[in-house]
Structures are given as C-alpha cells and as structure tokens.
Design a protein that fits this description.
disordered N terminus, 3 domains, five-stranded mixed beta sheet, 21 strands, mainly beta, Immunoglobulin-like, disordered C terminus
C-alpha cells in the first residue's frame, strides 16, 4: 500500500475482496460468508482504481453497493471467473466517489444480504501542502508562541499540523504545546534560555510536507508585549484628549515604546502620536 500511495496520479489500485461461503444459511444458497478484509484505501485524486470481489463457494449473484443503492452496471465489469470488478478511471473528490462501498450476495428482492457484506472505505485527496506564514514570538519572555496559516488547497483528508524544534543537523522533534487540544494552527510552550529554529510539519495519509525553518528564535529577543492595561481617557476638548495607561509589569526592565494612534471620522486611516519612553500619559 505504501508503494501505491507514492505512485503517480494515474497509477492503478487493485484490491481483491474474497467472499467465502462456509456452511448453511437460507438465502437461495446454503452458505454463510466470511468477511475479509475490512479495509481502507487512500489514493490521490486522478488515480485509476479497481476493486475486485469474488466468490469462493456455491454459485450465486454478488454485486457492489454504495450505501443501500446497487451501483450501475456501467461502473462494473464481470469477469469470466465470476469476479465482479468495480472500476474508477480517475477518482475525484467532487463527484461523490469517496465513501464506503459494499460487495455482497444479492437477495431475490435486490437488497444486499447483510450477513455477507464486505466493506471498503475509499478516501480520495491530495498530498498535503506546507503550512504558510509561520511566525514565532513571546508575549511574556517565558512562553513561546508560534502561529501559522493552513494551506490554501484543501487536501480532503484528515490532516495534522505539528510544530517541530530542530535538535540536530537533520533531526526535528515535536514541541509539546500547552494549547494543542484547542488549536491546530498555533502552539504555545515553555521556552528555555536558548536560540532555537522551528518548523511546521503537515501530514496526511498521502504524505508529509514542512515549512521552511524559522529564523532563530529566543523568547527575549522576539518579545511582542501584550497591550498596556487599564487604558483610560479623560474628558476631550475640541483639540485634545488625555490618555492614561499602566505599564506592562513584565517589561519594566526593557525598553518598550508606547504609542498612541487616533482616528477621526471612523475611517481606516490612523494618525500616530510619538511618546517618549517612560511617559505614562499623553
């Protein structure tokens, strides 16, 4: 299967499903069925796929279904040995081809005999593109925070995003994120007093892809402070207004510039007021 998933988009996938009749069951044939295998097949968009279903036992009618609906004969080939072959020339994600398919013995009323069902789950998608816009910084010089945007193209497959730390020449280890359970586009972790390089690894069943490594990150040198606390406004006049705020305590010993911007008429243009360091009001 690994060879199949690494093949080009026009490669063929042939899955043989063997339905075996063993002992007695009243369904026009005296048999029961051993279901094997129950499997999932993951292929790239555009792949040629063939599923084979054959009988080992008394001669009877079998067919392919999707859900409770028998598939049209144009999508199948019946071979001389009794094998029924489900064929997709180039699978796509938009036309409803991905999903669960069932091969089974057909009852007199056309329904699938539930005790003879063999299921195949067909998943169709793209290998993952790398995440983009990786950015790492710290709000408090203690915890690091990296965020990224997901790729523009949807892979149509379950995809994971893992922040990794470079620990050797070609070695990357996963970062233990404190917020990983609530976000797959950011990671917050406790830093150490060292420079590190990070990347985001994107994975799905068709492969993996990684962002370019980040610049060397140090929580002290990539600090982006939170906004100041307790911003207060005095009574405005026709020409001015007094603004007060509390300094960010964790940055008391660092050169942090405070700036005020104002907006007139609620438009998109902001005018910035420069403030000397250490001034608490303007």
């Amino acid at each position: 299967m690994n060879t199949m998933m690494r093949s080009v988009l026009v490669s063929a996938v042939i899955i043989s499903v063997l339905v075996s009749f063993i002992n007695t069951q009243s369904i026009n044939t005296n048999a029961t069925v051993t279901i094997s295998p129950n499997t999932t097949v993951v292929v790239p968009v555009g792949t040629h796929v063939e599923f084979n279903c054959s009988i080992d036992g008394p001669k009877t009618t079998i067919n392919w279904y999707k859900g409770a609906t028998p598939l049209p004969s144009r999508s199948m080939r019946r071979l001389e040995d009794g094998t029924i072959q489900l064929v997709f020339s180039e699978v796509q994600v938009e036309d409803g081809q991905p999903g669960y398919y069932t091969c089974c013995v057909v009852l007199e009323d056309g329904r699938c005999h539930s005790e003879t069902e063999v299921h195949i789950h067909l998943k169709v998608g793209y290998p993952p593109d790398p995440a983009k816009n990786l950015e790492c910084y710290s709000h408090d010089m203690y915890y690091g925070h990296c965020k990224w945007d997901k790729p523009d193209r949807d892979s149509h497959l379950e995809t994971s995003y893992t922040l990794q730390l470079k620990t050797g020449r070609d070695k990357w280890d996963s970062v233990k994120c404190s917020n990983k359970t609530v976000s797959d586009s950011s990671c917050t972790w406790q830093t150490d007093d060292k420079y590190h390089v990070y990347r985001v690894l994107t994975c799905n069943d068709l492969g993996k892809n990684a962002t370019s490594p980040s610049d060397a990150f140090h929580s002290l040198h990539a600090a982006v402070p939170y906004p100041p606390n307790e911003v207060r406004f005095g009574s405005p006049t026709s020409k001015s207004v007094r603004v007060k705020w509390d300094k960010i305590k964790k940055f008391d010993y660092y050169n942090v510039d405070y700036k005020v911007r104002y907006n007139t008429n609620f438009n998109q243009e902001w005018t910035e007021v420069q403030i000397e360091y250490g001034t608490h009001k303007k």
